[in-house]
Amino acid sequence: MAANGQSPKLLCDGMLAGLARWLRAAGYDTGLAPAGAVDRAVLDTCRTQSRILVTRDRHLAAHAGRGIEVVLLTADGLDAQSGELSAAVCLNWNRAPFTRCLLDNTPLHEATPDQRMRLPPRACGLPGPFRACPACGRVYWPGSHVWRMQARLEQWQARRRPWPGD
Ligand SMILES: [Zn+2]
């Protein structure tokens, strides 16, 4: 939880698309600045949507100004970046796993019977949950890919430094 009692919303710069996916996998509302976005537009989005800017771009971080919380990442690789981000923002990597679309950040709905029909046969016998993205139509089910991602999120959560009030 952030200081205001709400889950933090984030915006990753275009160089951090991988990390943005993982933040969405953990359940965080995470925007992604399009590659080549103008700094001013990125900062405006953070300001108007109250998003924490997560960036590797020193220049962008330096221009954020007051009213925008910025986390400047210097680490390479997802594991190191997640640790660096966890040290700056109180995150729970198990917050609400797989409740947002990894591609476009839209909150997922329960898959409709129609959408479940489109699952590969090997997925149909799984216990669920089966969720679908109302924006892009992608269906998510608890297969091996999701299990692998969830195991990594649990590792990140386990090695995270505790925050006061955890
Ligand atoms: Zn989607």
Q: Can you give a write-up of this model?
A:
- With 166 residues, this protein is an alpha/beta fold.
- It has a domain at 10-96.
- It is 37% helix and 11% strand.
- The protein has 7 helices and 7 strands; from the N terminus they run E-H-E-H-E-H-E-H-E-H-H-E-E-H.
- It has helices at 17-26, 39-49, 58-62, 78-88, 113-117, 121-124, 144-158, and strands at residues 10-12, 30-32, 52-55, 70-72, 109-110, 131-132, 139-140.
- A 4-stranded parallel β-sheet has the order 2-1-3-4, sandwiched between helices. It has a 3-stranded antiparallel β-sheet with strand order 5-6-7, with no helix packed on it.
- Helix 3 (58-62) links the parallel strand 3 (52-55) and strand 4.
- The longest helix is centred in the last third of the chain and has 15 residues, at 144-158.
